[in-house]
Amino acid sequence: MSQPSRRSFLRTVGSIVAAGIAGAAGGYVAGSEITRSQLSGQAANVANETIRALEAEIKELKEKLAQYEIKDKEVRFYFWSETIPEQLLTFFEEKTGVKVVFDTFESSDEVFAKLFTGQMPYDVTSVTMGGMTRQEHERYLTKLDLNRIPNFKRYAFTGFIKEILNPPFDPNRDYSVPIELGTTGVSFRTDKIAEDDWPTGFRDSLFDFEGFLRKYSPRDGVKRATMIPGGVETIPVVIKAIMGKSINDITPENINEAKEILIQQKPYLATYGGPSEFVPGLAEGRFWVSETWVWQDSANNVDYVAPEEGSEIWEDSLVIPKSAKNIDAAYALINYLLEPAVQVAHVLYNSLVTPNSLAYEMLPDDVKEDTSIYPPPEVISKYEMWLNRTPEQKEMLTKAWLEVLAA
Q1: What residues contact residue 208 under an 8 Å CB cut-off, 6+ apart?
Q2: Which of 42, 178, 231, 294 is the most exposed place for a label (fewest CB within 10 A)?
Q3: Where are the chain's structural domains?
Q4: CA atoms of 51 and 60, how far apart (whole Å)
C-alpha cells in the first residue's frame, strides 16, 4: 500500500486541527473526510502536538467569539473550492449564532463576472486584486475599516513578502486583506513520470513540446496535461516563466507572443481546469501533470514544484463587495479567518503560506522548512506579485484568451 504524499498528509493534519479547534473529541467530525484510522496515525500525532501548542490561542479564540456582538443573522461567503476546512465555518456559526452561507468558485473570472455585472449576492469574497483596476476597486469594493479587522495588522507576517502591509496592487490595504499566499507551479504524478523527467518548473514540463509533452501527453492515446483557465491569470505566467520577462510587462507584443505559445501547447492538453478538475484528476491518475497553485490536495504519488525559473506569488485577498448586506458579520468573519489558530488549520489543510506571523511560528518546523511551500531566497527572488491591470491590459488579455480557446 502506497504512503500518502506530503500534501495529502498535511491536509489530514489540517482537517484534524480544524476539528480540534471546533472542540470535537479526538478531532473526529461525523460526516467529514477524516476517518477513525487517520486519527491514530502519524498525522493525528502531528495534529495533536499542534493543537497542544495552540491551546492558549484556541482558548483566547473561544473567549473572543463568546464576546462577539453581531447584529446580522447570516453572512454570505464566496471562496475558492477545495480550500477551507468547513469545520472552521461551522465553529464560527456555533459560537456566534451567525449562519454562514458558503459557496465556491473555480476561477477569478467567475468572481469578476458577478462583481462587474452587479450580480454579487455575497458579503465576503476573494478577488485577484491585481486583475482589477484601481477604479474598479473604488467602484465595486467597500473601503475597509482595518480597525474592525485587528488581526491583520496585529499579526502581519513579512517573512514571505515584505510588502504584505502595502502591496503593489492595493497600497495601504484600502480594499483587501490577505487570507493566504502561495506560488503558481507544476504538480505531477511521481508514479507516472520517470524520475529523470520530474519537472523543475514550467519550461521542462508543460511547455517542453518536443520532449516532455510529446512523451507524456498524450500517453496511451489519452491527453494527460492541464492548465489553469483564464487569460488574466495564465498569460502573465507565460510571459514570466517561459518568455523570461516581468509578469507585469503586459504589452501587446508580449501578450501576442504568449498567446501563440499557448496555442502551440493546446493540442497536448486534456482541459483547462480549476481545482475541482485538477485535484481529482491528479488524485485518480487521469492527469499526470498540471499547472496548479501550491495549495492543491495532492493525493498519493503527486508532488508540487515551485518553478526554478520564477513564476507568480499570488495572494487570495478577502474583500467586502459594495453590494454586501451583512457588513457587521462580514467584518467578524474576516477577522475570525485571520485568527492564529484558524490560520494554522487553514494553511496546513492546503499547504499554503500564511499571512499571520503567530500562525507561522506555530507551524511544525518541517512545514516551515518545506521549500515547495516556502521557497528559498534565491528562488523566491525570481517571483513577482501583480500590479493592477489597466482597462486596456484587461481587454487585451481577455481578447487573447478567447483567441486561444477558439484556436
Answers
A1: none
A2: 42
A3: 183-313+383-406
A4: 13
Burial class (CB in 10 A: 0-12, 13-18, 19+), 81: middle
Strands (E), 232-312: 269-272, 289-293, 302-305
CATH among 3.40.50.300, 3.40.190.10, 1.10.10.1100, 3.30.565.10 for 183-313+383-406: 3.40.190.10
Q: Across residues 27-40, what is the average pLDDT?
A: 42
Amino acid identity, position 393? Q
Tell which residue, 296, 345, 367, 368, has the closest CA to residue 15: 345
In whole angstroms, what is the distance from residue 144 CA to residue 114 CA? 20
Task: Tell the residue number behind the cell numbers 492515446, with chain if given.
Answer: 221
Supply 65's cell numbers.
467569539
pLDDT of residue 163 exceeding 50 = yes
Please, which contacts does 372-375 make with residues 24 or more away whose CB atoms are closer than 8 Å?
A: 372/185, 372/294, 372/303, 372/304, 372/305, 372/306, 373/182, 373/294, 374/160, 375/183, 375/306
The dihedral region occupied by 31, where left means phi > 0, alpha psi between -120 and 50, and beta the remainder, is left
Asked if the model's pLDDT at residue 177 lies above 90, the reply is yes
Question: The dihedral of CA 54, 57, 59, 62: what is its sign?
Answer: negative
Read off the pLDDT of residues 130-149 as tens digits, 9 standing for 90 and up. 888 889 999 999 999 999 99
Q: What is the pLDDT of residue 12?
A: 74
